[in-house]
Every structure is written in C-alpha cells, then in structure tokens.
Amino acid sequence: MEEAVFLGVMLTPILKREQTSLKALKGTSFAIDASIEIHQFLALVRKRDGSLFTDSQGRVTSHLIGLLTRTSRLIADFGMKPVFVFDGKPNPLKRRTIEMRREARRKAEVEYVEAVSKKDYAKAWSKAVMTGRVTRSVLDDSKRLLTLMGIPWLEALEDAEAQASYMAAIGDVWAVGSKDYDCLLYGAPILARYLTLTGREWLPAQQRSRPLIPELIKLSENLTLLGITREQLVDLAILVGTDFNQGVKGIGPKKALKLVHDYASIKQMPEEIRSRLTEDLNSVRQVFLKPRVLEKYVLKRSPPDRDGLVKFLSEERGFNKNRVERLTERLTRRSEKADAGLENWLN
Length: 347
Hints:
Number of strands: 9
Number of domains: 2
Helix content: 40-55%
Order of helices and strands: HEEHHEHHHEHEHEEEEHHHHHHHH
C-alpha cells in the first residue's frame, strides 16, 4: 500500500479527525516536517507534462516556488508562525522503508519515461508526482530560502517528526504540521494536517486526486475515545506496520485495536502473532517513546532579507523579480507588526 510506504503508519480508520480552516488557525505556531513539505512541492509543482520547473541551468526550482508562495501566504495572510524541522541521520531501523521508497521511485521514473514516449500525459503526470528526489542541493536551497525569509529552522538528530513532536509536547509550538500519523506515536499533542492554501493530493494507489482540507488530530482526545494509552497506541502501530518495522499481514488498524483491547500489549498476544513481528520490538517502541531529539536549540526569527531574496530567487534562479519583491514586502509588513521576541514567535 503506497500510503503506508510513504506516510509512516496508517491509522486513518480509527482516528477522530476534525476538519478546520486556515482562518480558524490564525496566529498559531507549528513545527513543520520540512521533508514532507518539500516532497509535496516536488510532487505537485510541475509543468503540464509532469516535469519539474527548473532554472536556466537546469536546477530544480519547484520546491522553491512552493515554499515561497505557500509559506509567505500562511504568514502574511493568516499570521502563522512556522518553524521548519529537517530530518537528521535516519535510524538504522528505517533502512527497509527507505529502500522501499527508493524502489517505488525508480519504478515510477521508468513508467514516466514510457508514458511520455507514448504521449500519454495523464499517466505521465500520475507517475511524475512519485519521482521527486530530495537531494542535498534541494535541501540546501530550502534552508537558504527559509533563512532569507527570516523563518526559523533546525535539523533533527534523527526523524523530523520526533523533533517536531517534542517541541509541541513541551509547548514551544502549538502543533506539529505534518501528514504523518507517526507524530502521534512520538507524543505530539496536536497534529495539524494539510496546512495548504488550495490544492489537491495525488493518491497513487487509486490513480486519482482529492481536495486538501486542513484537519486537526488531538492525541489525548483520541486515546480517550480509543480506550488505550500512548504506549498501547505504539503497540497498535507496530502490529499495523511502521517506518521501523514490518507489520503483521492481515492486521489493519481496527483489528490491531481489538487485539490491544483483548491482550493489553503485544507481549501478551498469542505466539502466532508475536512470531510474525521483529524480535527487537523494544527497540521499535523506544524509537517512538524515547526518541533521540535535541532538547536545547536556538530558533531565531529575523526580518526578511529583501536584497538577499531578490538576488537568490530572481538573479540566480530566474524568478519574476516583481513577484518576489511583492511577496517580500508582504512578509516584511507582517514582520514589522510582530514582536521580535522568540516567545511571541513560538506561542
């Protein structure tokens, strides 16, 4: 299932999700999973034939277009206070998932080329959205743009979701901005999904897209409704399968929930279930319950660098200078209204 491959654990059928709007979230602060954001821009900010936007030297700019336009509007129009968190070194347990993603991308790249050669542009687009590569240059460009925009960012020790969830749990931000349910396993009090202005999400398994509507998932409320603890939610996720372990075939979220209710924990479940899971269950649990995170970090907000943005985006990457200047002006006005103190940026 592609959602499981690309979005961590799949818990949709059992979670209560509250639809909301950007207007309702005005003024809130988020720790945003940068990798998922960039992947989304590389998937959707494309030309009609599915190819990425590039500058005159062939360097990809789709991620810069998405990051600049979406983030500037979230800040200027809705007063949101984002902090971007980038992935650090992946946990060794995640190697299998990383390889699965690479293989899926390689397969999509081959199918994209075949579709273009046959002039089947609808199919080409459906495959192109799965081929985006978050390279070192893409990451460096993204960090440079955020710095020029005056937006704080940091690099996690391991998973960005873990770091973002920690920041939300200690109250440095109101919520985690991510599509990944793993944030709940890491202890994020509130998960905010689809913080997008307008747009659609491509569903590879169903060969269709769907509109994106912002939604909130509250950990405490869901644990109460499900009648389980966070530790039991982690066991439930392990049964279904996470980025760090292969689940049990035939066990989805609803069946896993029933098993947790019946047996309380995996270690008390029948041998036929336990034998189909990794032997090192405790290591997987600890990834979520005691993740490696930065407990001390400095996040500095600064006014947008007008000259720097024009130089980077217009002179180096070929963006329309007038549009860059307009967006920079809007960001600057918002920055001048805000208190420069970090506590006001984060809360």
